[in-house]
Specification:
The structure holds 2 protein chains of 2 kinds. By secondary structure, chain A is α/β, with parallel strands linked by helices. Chain A folds into 4 domains: 30 residues; 198 residues, no CATH class; 253 residues, no CATH class; 196 residues, no CATH class. Helices cover 50% and strands 10% of the residues of chain A. In chain A, a hairpin with a 5-residue loop joins strand 12 and strand 13. Chain A is globular, with a radius of gyration of 29 Å. Chain B is an alpha+beta fold. Chain B has one domain: Porin (Beta Barrel), CATH 2.40.160.20. Chain B is elongated and about 75 Å long. Classes of the chains: A alpha/beta, B alpha+beta.
Amino acid sequence: MKLRHLAISFFAFSGFSTSTYAQNLEKNSSIQLDFNYYQPLSCQGPVPLILTRTTSSKAKEAMKDIKGKSGKRSEKRTEMDHAVESSFFEDQLLTSGQILYGDPMTEYVNNVADELLKDNQALRDQLQIFVLKSHIPNAYTTHNGIVVVTIGLLARIENESQLAVILAHEIQHFVKKHSLKQYKEVKKTITESRRNYGELESKLKRLYRFSKEQEYEADELGYELVKNSKYDLSEGIYVFEMLKFTEYPFLETTMTLEGFEKPNFKFPTYIYENIQSQLKTAKEFDDKIDKEESDEESSTHPSLDKRIDQLKLQVDKKEYRGRQKFVVGEKDFKLMQQISRFELLLSYIKRADFGRSYYLAKVVELIYGKNQFLNKVAAMSLYGIVEHKLNKHNLDDYGLSVNYNRGDWRPISAAFNKLDSRDFGALASSLIWEIYMSNKSDEFVRSICDRTFTLMQTKGNFKLKDFTSFKPAAVEPEKKPQIDTTATISDGKLKNPRSRIARNSSGEVVVNNIYYYGAFYHLNDKQKADLEKYFDSIKIETTSYSANPSKLSYTEREKLDARRYGRSNKNVENLVLMQPRIIYSNGKVDMFYDNIETKRNYFAEEIAKNQILDNWNYVPNATNNKVDVLDNSVGKSLKTEDLNRYSISNDWLSERLNNDTNQMILFYKQYLNGMSKDESSPYLLNVNYEYIVIPRPFDIQGLIYSFALPFYFPFYLAQQFQNDCVLKEKVMAYNTETGRQVYYSNKSFQHKLNQDLLRAHIYKTIYEIKHINGK
Amino acid sequence: MVNNQGGYKMRFLRNILVIIFAFSANNEIQAQSNPGFMGKTGLVQFDLTGLMGNLIYEGPAVKVNYGFSYEKARNQNFAWNFGYSQTNQTMDYNMIVGEYLTYYDNGQYNNVRDKSSFDYLFSEFKVTPKWYNASQGAVSPYGAYNGLELSLGFLNISNANKEQWRQPLSSDDGAKLNSIPSVTVFSASYIFGGRRMVTDQIGVDFTLGMGYTLYQTLPGNLMDYVEGDSYAATIEEFYQYTALKHMSSSKLFQAKLGVSYLF
């Protein structure tokens, strides 16, 4: 009997669990996640309602509401300006291609918010929560209730309660209208940042950067919200601790240069001494930064330690202990965490943060196991470093900054940064080759492999036999990297990450006396035969002059590389245009043209944007050209599919611009199938406009002339009441196959933005791109 | 009677125009590829030109002539325009001023001719190199431009036989004139303007210009006649100078409105 009851209870319980889990699975069942061949997450389902109305209609409605309120005119004016800027910025954010909805991560975060605000449906209905594909661990709230959590943050949190604390804090910023208050305080307007990828984050920080007092207020009120839920408020302490370590990887593993060496492949001895001195300098830099940030008086940020102390006062109360760490579900949390970490890798690749992406790929591999996607990330990271080293770029910009990489990724950053391009190239080619051999059917890895070897031979001054040459060496056992993911919690603090350099078991720095170059010597005969066959297939020459690039100058080697790899563009047939952007400003100038002030006119901008888009749709059709326009305009016709296509193109372009090279294989090339309706590799076109309208100041000189010459008076009037208009047009086109920029034009016209001008220039752009080779 | 020395100069200038025409017509000479306006690099245009120089000279304030032209863009910023225009004008008695047409006799001033009028027809062939202004967003043949209009014109007098002349300009009172030879005129105008598109193929063109006669086949300096000094040695020359003076001065300020069809 008891057994039967037990069985019934068991089945009932498991049935309940299963149905809950099944329910969660069902929510995500539209996406089949394969981490082995991970694809960037895309938006799913219907477009959020907020995006189905045009921005100007929403802004006008907000302005109307404000006008109807009582209050001082100047304050209402400020409030209306804020409402307009917020509306336009929010829509730009939501259609940027960086925001996710309908995906498992966003669904999960929304479920946590649902749980948090279970007793306040009215407030919950005012909020819309999304995930932002940004590596920076942060969360933002906009004036109209849009809450955005970054993947950088989601990758770092350890449980659901921590997310709940974060959401509770952000919700209070909305409830208390901190954005508007801050705006009134400083009357800042959004200014544009030049760099494509960082622009959104810069704007987010500028518009939604709250004062210290506002942060403390949001903390206090947020704690109340968490207390009224099932979540464990004490987890907030670990959130603040986590924020102290944002310069560190989210988890660490020891990675040493020695770990890459093989019996017959060693690094030169100088590099170990070099690393030590760099680490010392970096430590001094750390101390300086830490000192500046801990000064509460002068810092604009609230002190994390002070926030921790204030929170501890709350959690010391007994009634708030022992709450749940997971309410929606631990399994869902783990899935969300895994996705966020994979997305984070993509984010670093997109930013060309190769040092970090390589390190994190190894960390993620140790947590979740080896897989093909991680292999690709590692291969791409190594190739990216080789490409930039051989192009003599500053590697601090590519994730190998010793100062800004704290923690266990610092020594490896130092090492990769300082290794000579040939030394690193030999290592990278060897590792990429191994990855390729583990999955020969992967075309992307194959293309990276081809490119790396070609680069090493052309720009890298390698001869074929350099890859396989060998000198006698003392055999040392291989050292494997160690993982250390335990977070020892004592006194409410996380364990401090350490920085180590290559040491042996006695803690002494290991210095090798002999340096060898045999990156492929360890291969067995069959593997060497495969390597030779591979070299044949990519036509690495062994006997011709070009096979001995050491005789060529750097410029000549660049030309050799361009000839080998940079094939001239075939006829441009398939153009894909990312929706053109325009910034429309009204200017004001004094009589002497000394001072020009501009103010963005968002409403005119929306009209101009639609006009430009209409013409970009019209002109190709009217002139028998094929241009696929990726339209992400807010309004009734917006579809999720369009947003996703735009997002892919934006990701590719971000990666391209962040790499800042003449040509390069890009990781997001793998995902371009979703971008173009045509199957062939498209050319991606990016067009930006800037339009300034400045009424002419009073022309007293002209008036005087027209008194002297009366027939001049009509001309004077025509001149005086005209506006000076400047239209700036920047066009870039890229071959997405090779990453090469095929067209660039940056022009300025003193002309009104009218239809025939747009049509003339749109056609001109298409024509010039199609005639790139001058034919 | 045409001065032969002027003939050599005229032939030289004519030859220059022919060379320019031949050069511009050569399809093999392509400086840069040109997208044109939506792919259209040629046009034909019908225009009306208002010649307003006589706002400051005597005669009708504004003359209107009609013309048509063909334009072909050679590259993004340059085009050749070939045109033809003509204008005709009836010169009535009051438009013809000449103090030398009176003589003093027996205590009074007498006119050497009776009141009447004559007509002239001025036909021009024009070649205009046009530079389109890239900073104004122009892509030849669309947008703002400036140019140098070179024209070869032929001035023909007609219906002058109504005029009755008396001595001393005629041998007998009541003598009639023979036919008057045409005058060849070479002039240049600086023009500037712009073309806007109404549809993808139909455009509207507005141009302003300032013109000057460089050479004509009559003896003497035309400016002498523009300024009013007498020079005419024969009645025929008198008609020619009078018409030419009127025509030349009207070219000083010009405004043209045209409708173009692009292809």
